[in-house]
Amino acid sequence: ASTDNPPKKISIDQAIASFRETLRDVRSGDRVRQTGRELDALVMQPIRSLLGDKTHILISPDGQLNLIPFA
């Protein structure tokens, strides 16, 4: 039996909170990029293959997603 812990899954709301927190800290630098990528992996990555070659999509964010700049 392995003693390695599997990566912890976080919710979209947790990822949004983490991303927004790093945006507030001017010293966060690479952490902003990392938390943004984690959020992207939860929100956009699952649908990217469905978008095909589309260059524009309409986003109607709900809940905490309203707090994220998609542009």
What does this structure look like?
The protein is mainly α. The protein has helices spanning 12-24, 30-43, 45-51. The protein starts with 11 loop residues before the first helix and ends in a 20-residue tail after the last helix.
Mean pLDDT: 88
Q: Give helix % range.
A: 40-55%
* Shape descriptor: globular
Low-confidence stretches: none
Question: How many helix segments?
Answer: 3
> Can you summarize the main beta sheet?
none
Termini gap: 46 Å
Number of strands: 0
**What would you report as the Rg, rounded to the nearest angstrom?**
15 Å
Order of helices and strands: HHH
**How much beta, percentage-wise?**
under 5%
Structure classification: mainly alpha
Helices and strands in order, then pairings?
Layout: H1 12-24, H2 30-43, H3 45-51
Characteristics of this structure?
single chain; 71 residues; mainly alpha
Please give a quick description of this structure:
The chain has about 70 residues and is mainly α. The protein has helices at about 10-25, 30-45, 45-50. The mean pLDDT is about 90.
